[in-house]
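Q: Here's a chain of 560 amino acids. Please give me its 3D structure as tokens.
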Amino acid sequence: MAAEVRMVLYEDDSVQVQYVDGSRLQLSPCGSEFLFEKAPPVSAHPLEQPERIRQRTHFVISTYREQLQRALDFRNSFAVCPFLSESIIPSERKKRIFIDFSEVRWPSGDTDDGIICMQSGTVKISSLDGHAYLCLPKLQHEFIVHFLCKVSQKPDSSVVLSEKKNQARKDKLVEKAGKICTYGSLSRQRLKNKENELYCQITKSKEPLQKKSCVNGAEGKEDAPLPSTKHTCVYTWVKQCWPVASCPEEWRYPLSLALRFHNKISSMSGIDADITQSRTLTSDISEERGKEVSVLPRALLLSCPVPHLHRWDFCDSLSQRPFDEEYSYPELVKVVWYKGVTYRLTHKNVNSIEIYPGDGSVFKSEGAYLGKYFTYYSIQEGSEEREEKTYSVNNLPPDRPGSLFSVYSLIKQATGILQHCAKTRLSLSHNYRICCWKMVPGINDSNILPVLLRESVIPSVGRFLAYSDDKVHALFLDGITLTLNWNFSSLTEKRQVNQGLNLGWCKLTFPDGQDQLIQIEHPGPYERYVTAVISWCRRLTQTSQREMSTHPSSSVLEEN
């Protein structure tokens, strides 16, 4: 079985994998489908299309089972919602439990019960029921959480849970007919059409996940199953890695306990922890008290309700050419794994990236617009002291013989990914794609596309437009178009001229269709374009703040 060379997780949780033999695999955002592209033979014609196999993940054949399992493990380690197909999970990783739970309780913040410090310096905290535990390494830049998660279920078994509001109305309609027939897999339309009939449908599944009951007078009551009768639930352990700086809500409380315990050990042993880091990480500990219960993430459904939204696109960056060449990923990148090195990106207000070489150390992008400098954090083996080094992207050190990794290569690759993400965020197609697993019944599709917030025409300059997705488009009279991201909800001060600027880059599109990324701080010959747009954004933000103070009910900019 071919080994992985590169694995990429996108912002919508879709995955693309490149293998040593040139074959490729792509997972849909929900994980329920995959597409495998075989490597073309050496004798293949250049125009010959490669053979592609598209299958449902739950029914994968043995040929691709191992590769698909590793791709899913990579996805579930960094995705918001895991996808856990029981058919491809090894038997040793399954756990049958007689209770159905969706939350765990952590120890109280007043005691240190359930918290231990391992020999490596990692702090481990376990839930009271043993269904989850969190590990915080000594560097405190990321943490690893393990939890039991129920395997993915069939879509029909979750209809009743997803339509609780409509269930009461349905029951009333059925009671009026005098006959009640409840079956967990009935859809809304089917229940409405069958409300005057008495029937029981026998499921054909080998392992039925649904319960059915048919009640019609005394005979129906005798045949109805007892409420206490339950089948065992299949669970599996899920491992997820999260950065401490952007911890999900369900893990904030156990993380605060681990941080407090780590600081307690450091003060007792006399080791000086990083003051700035410690203040940043422990600032919310007091606010998390009283939140001992965490709601566990739920696995996605076995089949996608909207498979027509799946897009299969193998980009050129996953080919055999060098990794540090131009990037052409179709969407924003969340995680890149390349030859044992993990690159994790954050796309909240700004683009930032963390590099994990695999030896416990981490590189973190720093600077006014992240990506200009990188700080290296590590723990010295002998003295156990924290070591920090700052590298400038424009002045990287040469490679040292015998070193575990090349600092120059890692930072250059990370910088290239950051520039790609900046270009993607400035593209016209970003945020216009609909993610399949985020679709909720009854959602208003009109809210997906961005809304025009403000439009201004400046004489002898051009036309300026601001949208709800924080994009600003400026069309100048000479045919040049400038696009940048600006956070209009941020406060603007006179001494901070670029407050609200999300990216350190903007994109210029020339009349011939060519585009170019320009650094905001060093625009060069395009300074007048950048200055004009930033000045307009700054005035617009100041106007918005005054309107907000005058009319507190207004939450968005008013459209002209």
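Q: Can you summarize the key feature?
A: DSSP finds nine helices and 27 strands in the chain.
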